[in-house]
Amino acid sequence: MSVIILVGFMGCGKSTFGRKLAKQLNYQFMDADDSIEAKYKLKVKDIFSQFGEAHFRKLEEKFILDLDNQQNIVLATGGGMPCFGKNIDLLNQLGTTFYLQRSVPELVHRLINAKRPRPLIHGKNQSELTEFIEELLPKRETFYLKSHHVLNRDQQNPLFVQMLLNQKSGTVNSD
Ligand code: S3P
After folding, report:
1. The pTM of the whole model exceeds 0.85
2. Four-residue CA torsion sign, 83, 153, 17, 171
3. Predicted confidence (pLDDT) per residue in 120-144, tens digit
4. 75: enclosing H helix or E strand
5. d(CA 18, CA 30)
6. Whose CA is nearest to atom 10 of ligand 1?
7. Residue identifier of the C-alpha nearest atom 15 of ligand 1
8. Residue 120 Cβ < 6 Å to ligand 1
9. Does the N-terminal or the C-terminal CB of the chain have fewer CB atoms within 10 Å?
């Protein structure tokens, strides 16, 4: 059970939660966007503006294919990563996937004040953002919901996830 993969819409908290979970499990944390930015020495927003979204999706797929052999990591994926090609199936093969489910109002609230630049929502006001998420989330959920586990807001807690993982592997936590 050494690769834990978090999926979900932009702003659902994959990176924040992933860092906490990695600490709890004593795993290494990896953020897909940060890794792609470091590898190509370009910000995601610049990859979008200079090469287009389709190119970014190819880099995301390559990132997944290169992940083979990783051990003891918690990976925060980009919000679109599981929703293109066979990516969700590849992610499900690589590790245990968790969908961090959040409602549209929660996502709007979290994204409207977010600092990370996100090309797909750049410049949108609150009502445009709401409309965008209302339209895209149901489409993306068809992929997110293929994850091994769906975590609702209250279950997005490192101890809960550790308990789930222990149950699956039959390990009794001595703490
Ligand atoms: C995207 C989400 C972003 C990033 C890129 C595209 C998407 O990641 O990969 O801006 O298509 O939903 P976060 O989910 O970490 O914001």
Report:
1. yes
2. negative
3. 999 999 999 999 999 999 999 999 9
4. strand 73-76
5. 8
6. 118
7. 78
8. yes
9. C
